[in-house]
Structures are given as structure tokens and as C-alpha cells.
Design a protein that fits this description.
With 204 residues, the protein is of the alpha+beta class. 36% of the residues lie in helices and 31% in strands. The strands form two sheets. The protein has a five-stranded mixed beta sheet, with no helix packed on it.
């Protein structure tokens, strides 16, 4: 056998080995990807879910408040008691405040929820002369729920507030209207005449 033929046979065997090695390498890579990719995607999914959960935990709680009474648009001037509801409960750190026509400072309402003095799930407040009475015309009554975010969700502690306002028209009822001077004089005369008519006759 000539040396040239031997050389050609060696070259062919090298080419076959190279092709077999390439084929084996390709199959090995495919097998590795088959077993590795599911874990990669699974861990990636878990990571995304964890990030979404963390973002949700950082969102402030949803709070709300509403004045439920009075329902009527018109109310008597003078003292007025309003009441309402909110998303507060005995365990959350919230307080309800009220004001009249944006007159500051805000006034603290009274908690009437089943959880006790700190449960503003229901609340009430009375407008008196100590703060402001209801007057003739439009009265803007505002309630504000103020909650403290304690920072456990990953954000700094801060106040979260929600407000609710109504407008009521103060009207003077007949019993509250002042009596005119002429009417008062006439009433006094009638009273005096009635009293005089009941006096016993004079004896002569």
C-alpha cells in the first residue's frame, strides 16, 4: 500500500472523528438545555412573582370615608350632628376629623364603632358654638380619614388621608325666627289685657 493511500485513509478517519465529535457535542448541548431551561424559566417565574408581591406589599392601603347623615339637603341653623362610616377598624391606626367651610383646625370626631374608642368604622360629630354652628345658607361639611402607614410594608411611615364633603343649606325654622317689635308689643298687650280681665271687680 502506497504511503499516499495510507495518508488519505488517516485523513478520512480524522474527518469522521471530527464529525462524530461535533455530533456528540451538539447532542450533549441539546440535552443540557433540555434539563436546564425549565429550571431557568421556573426560577425566573418565581423571581417575577416575588417582585410583584413585594410591589403589592409596598402599595398603601385603600381607605375611604363617607358622611351618611344628614341625608336632607336642608337642615336647621344652629347645632347639627353628623355621622358617617369609614374603612377604619379597631386594629388600624386611623382617626376621623371634620371641619366647617374649611375653617381650621380640624375637629376630632367621636369613634362609635364596635371596636371601641379607636374604631372609626362608624363615627359622629356635633357642630356647636365651641367650633362653629350651622348658619343660614350653604355650609360645607368635610370629613377626613387620616391613617398612619407604619412602614412594615417596606415604605417609610406616612399619613394617608381621604376626604368626603357635603353641602347643606341652613334654614331658619319658624320657631327660630325672631319676633318683630310690633308683634311682640301686640303680644304683650294681649297678655296684659287677658291678665286684667281676670282681676276681681272693684267693690264700692
Amino acid at each position: 500500500m502506497s504511503s499516499r493511500l495510507v495518508s488519505n485513509m488517516k485523513m478520512l478517519s480524522r474527518i469522521k472523528l471530527t464529525k462524530e465529535f461535533k455530533l456528540l457535542f451538539t447532542v450533549g448541548v441539546i440535552i443540557l438545555l433540555y434539563f436546564a431551561l425549565p429550571d431557568y424559566y421556573y426560577s425566573g417565574t418565581l423571581k417575577v412573582q416575588a417582585q410583584l408581591l413585594q410591589q403589592q406589599q409596598r402599595l398603601p392601603p385603600v381607605i375611604s370615608i363617607k358622611i351618611t347623615s344628614p341625608v336632607a339637603n336642608q337642615v336647621p341653623v344652629g347645632e347639627l350632628t353628623i355621622s358617617g362610616i369609614s374603612t377604619d377598624n379597631a386594629t388600624s391606626d386611623c382617626t376621623v376629623y371634620t371641619d366647617w367651610n374649611n375653617t381650621k383646625p380640624f375637629q376630632k370626631a367621636v369613634a362609635t364603632g364596635p371596636g371601641g374608642a379607636d374604631d372609626y368604622s362608624t363615627w359622629t360629630f356635633t357642630y356647636t358654638d365651641k367650633y362653629h354652628l350651622i348658619t343660614n345658607g350653604t355650609n360645607n361639611l368635610t370629613s377626613k380619614l387620616s391613617c398612619v402607614n407604619d412602614g412594615n410594608s417596606g415604605i417609610a411611615a406616612a399619613n394617608i388621608t381621604k376626604s368626603y364633603s357635603i353641602n347643606v343649606i341652613g334654614v331658619t325654622e319658624p320657631s327660630q325666627r325672631p319676633v318683630s317689635s310690633s308683634a311682640q308689643e301686640q303680644q304683650n298687650n294681649v297678655t296684659s289685657g287677658s291678665a286684667f280681665s281676670f282681676l276681681p271687680p272693684l267693690e264700692r
